[in-house]
Amino acid sequence: MTILLFLNKIFALKNNSKKKTNPIELESLRSELIEKTLITSSNNLRLFLYHNFFELVFTLNNSNLEEAFLKEFIDDYLNSIKKYEVWGNDPSLTKKIFEQLNCIGDHSFAAEHITALNLEFRRIELQSIKLTKILNGDDFEDEEEHKAFFPLIDYEAQDDFYGTVESVTVRISKAADVDNFIIVPSEKEIEKRLSEQCRNSWLIALNISKQYVKNPYKHHEVIINFDKKEGFYEGNSLGIALTLSFLEEILKFYNPTYLIKLVDKSAFTGGLSESGEILNTSEYIIQRKVSAIFFSEINSFVIPKPEENYALFTLKQLKKNYPNRNLKLIPAENINDVLNRRDLVDIRKQKAVLRTAKFVKKNWISAVATVLLALFFAFLFVMDMDDNPESLYSDGNKLFVKNKNGKILWTKLVSVSDTYHSRVAKIVDIDNNDLNGIIICGEREPRTNLIKNSAMVVCYNSGGEEVWNYIFQDTVVADREILNTEYTVSILDTVTFQGQKTLLVYASNCPSFSSAIFCLDLKTGERLPGTFWASGHIMEGTVKDIDNDGKKDIVGVGYENGYEDLVFFAYELDTLIKVRPTMEQYLIRNYPVSKMKSYIRFPKTDFDNYFKIRIPGYSMNNFSKDDNNLKFKFSSSIPNSSDQSAVGYEINYDLKNINIVIGSTFRVQRDTLVAHGNLNQPYTDTEGYKNIIKSKILYWKNGNWVKRNELD
Description:
Among the domains are: 3-135; 148-350, Ribosomal Protein S5, domain 2 (2-Layer Sandwich). It is 31% helix and 27% strand. It is built from 16 helices and 35 strands. The strands form 9 sheets. The protein has a 6-stranded antiparallel beta sheet. Strands 2-1-7-8-9 form a 5-stranded mixed beta sheet, with helices on both faces.
């Protein structure tokens, strides 16, 4: 059923006063509502669907039915309300939403959301008061920064949602060898026309700026940040606004004699050709855009000259209801028509004192930095006698051990990037003598450049002399095979456990699937009791008392070969040898199964399945504990790509609730497949798609895998 048929069905039931709506009909509509809100990427359409369904249920005047059919939608409804703005929409539509929001606040099923509902109620009320003043022709004070605004049309939304008034924030810096444009957010709709318009607008702005700027840099990096991040940017009609934003920022960057500043609140529509000619939109689009601007804070709207009649007709129709609304339409044929109007663009000479102050401020910082750097190195040369290791750095081939002033004390051959060196090297105070030692894994032999032993952990003292080493060579058995002793070891963390300073190390079997977390005495390197075995490589982890019982827990992420999923796990640190639960054929035998404090499986996405990926990729060096927001965080990686974040997972410290974060590169790649019909909707960065991922996440509870709603 299409969205239009779904809405018609709701309207028919609302308007048929003779027929009483029954729960079976409501259940059918409820299922259809879930489907429709999942497939749409338009917040306005989603809100419209919720609004009409809620309105239908409220007509029944039955509190039991209201709670049964509306409570499950209140969270997503509220999220849609938070993204709704009065600007760009017909006031009659806002009034309906406002009234319904007030009505929902009076119902018991929304009691736990009353604070959030009241905040949104007040926000919409204040915006409505301001819009009413604008429509009545009243003056109003506005302290917001003046920008080049442009109307953005939401084609999925119904006609009363005319559009959004958007703007961009531009940042410019010097680039090395090519102009680089970074667009935020990078949605699927950042397509060829928009990319070409960004480059055209940049070249036009750069060319105009040359009459004010002498010897600009050859190449620049340009960050274009869409302020409202609506996510449906396409086409080239923001060309004028983008060119003015570029020009304004170029002049700020180079600080020439003249600057430009946009006057008052002005909006612009129309793409620009390479020569600066303003391109048409269409009759339908210009009418929608004039309507969106009419119901906004904008005072002046620049439009393509050939579409003046369409725009004037729309304005005339709108002013029948709001005759005092002050909106000036300004037709233009090219960018010079805009720049030559002082009611739009103020071009003025800077005061010499102000310009000099900017120059001194900009260059004084680098001058002071140079002086400080010189003093810093002079201090190191003359005074630095500190031989205590304080920091580590890797260039990919060597590990450099430095003191607190950055002086290199000694080096070891370790092949790891600086990003990941914390997994193979760690500074530790071994015996509380205030002299740090270094723990190193994966060190190479200088003569052969080969790894000495991938399963060896070595401890060096502050002078780089070996204190001890340990080689992990356990043998374990599963039904599938006897696992050999070829392991690679990495550092997990250090902790004081049972009165001993302990090094936690994790080992991964090179040719097969077994992995283990084991303990070493930090002072002597002796193996301590307590080993945790898993059927799948452990990737990263940390130590935390997750349930505040006074006992330390190991928290980690990695692979599960039996279930072919990514997993998050947590267990109590103890002296036992135990194994993580898995499928029978992968289970490490002869040890008890661990009682897990948390064990969560994260599914393959449809994107993984499309590329026939056996186990989702993992984005290394991505696991963290966020004590400020009470969350553990990690990310999967994109198949057949470099190690970039695909889907991020944020696990609350309650180990139940999980937030999904969609990576921008993954969003673009998956949405391309959706757009070409290779993957099914919904599009990627939508609540619908996130909910699909959430619905497949499994939790270990009492020996069984359950869904989130079965945990409580």
